C-alpha cells in the first residue's frame, strides 16, 4: 500500500471555497480531488472511482488546483499543443510563402534545397520526416510530371503503329 498523500491545509481551504463557488464540473472535480483524500483519507483509486475519472487524473487535478493562481477562475491548459514545434504556424506560413512565389512562377522546387534553407534559418539540423510534415501541414504536395512527353505527336505514333513491319512481334 502506498503512503497517504499529505495535502496542505491552505490548499484544503481553497478547495472548500471552490466547492462553494464552482461554476463548472472541472472546477468541482478539482476541488473534490483535494478534499476527499485530505478530509476522508481516500486513496487515489477510491477518489478516482468516486469522481468517475482515471487514477492518474487525480494528482493532475490536485496539481492544477495547487498551481492555479488564487484569482484565476479556470484551470490552465497544459495538454496538447505544439510543444516541440520548430516554428509557429505563422512562421511556417511565412517560410513557405517565400518559396511559393518561385513555385507559382513555374520553377521546379526541390525539397532538399528548401530543407537546407530551413536548417540555415533555424541554425540546426532538421530531420527529413519533420520537414515533410511541415510541408504537408502547409498543404504542399508533390506534383508528378506527366506520363507523356511534351513533344510527342499522337498522329505520328498512330501512323507508325499502322506501318510497322508485319514480321514484328505483336501482342495478342
Q: What this model shows, in words?
A:
The protein is elongated. 56% of the residues lie in helices and 0% in strands. Among the domains are: 9-67, no CATH class; 89-137, no CATH class. It has 172 residues and is an all-alpha fold. The chain is built from eight helices and no strands. The longest helix is centred in the N-terminal third of the chain and has 16 residues, at 25-40. The protein has helices spanning 9-21, 25-40, 44-51, 57-67, 89-104, 111-122, 128-137, 154-163.
Name some characteristics of this structure.
56% helix, 8 helices, 172 residues, 0% strand, mainly alpha
Low-pLDDT runs of 5+ residues are none
The SSE order reads: HHHHHHHH
CA-atom Rg in angstroms: 32 Å
What's the total count of β strands? 0
End-to-end Cα distance: 80 Å
Average residue pLDDT: 84
Strand content: under 5%
Helix content: 55-70%
Count of DSSP helices?
A: 8
Helix/strand structural class = mainly alpha
Amino acid at each position: 500500500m502506498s503512503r497517504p498523500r499529505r495535502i496542505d491545509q491552505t490548499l484544503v481551504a481553497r478547495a472548500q471555497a471552490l466547492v462553494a463557488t464552482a461554476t463548472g464540473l472541472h472546477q468541482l472535480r478539482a476541488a473534490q480531488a483535494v478534499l476527499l483524500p485530505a478530509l476522508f483519507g481516500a486513496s487515489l483509486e477510491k477518489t478516482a472511482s468516486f469522481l468517475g475519472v482515471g487514477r492518474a487524473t487525480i494528482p493532475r487535478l490536485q496539481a492544477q488546483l495547487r498551481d492555479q493562481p488564487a484569482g484565476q477562475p479556470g484551470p490552465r491548459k497544459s495538454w496538447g499543443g505544439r510543444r516541440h514545434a520548430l516554428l509557429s504556424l505563422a512562421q511556417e506560413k511565412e517560410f513557405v510563402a517565400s518559396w511559393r512565389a518561385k513555385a507559382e512562377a513555374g520553377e521546379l522546387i526541390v525539397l532538399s534545397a528548401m530543407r537546407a534553407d530551413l536548417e540555415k534559418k533555424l541554425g540546426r539540423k532538421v530531420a527529413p520526416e519533420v520537414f515533410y510534415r511541415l510541408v504537408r501541414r502547409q498543404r504542399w504536395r508533390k506534383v508528378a510530371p506527366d506520363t507523356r512527353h511534351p513533344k510527342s505527336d499522337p498522329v505520328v505514333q498512330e501512323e507508325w503503329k499502322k506501318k510497322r513491319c508485319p514480321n514484328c512481334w505483336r501482342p495478342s
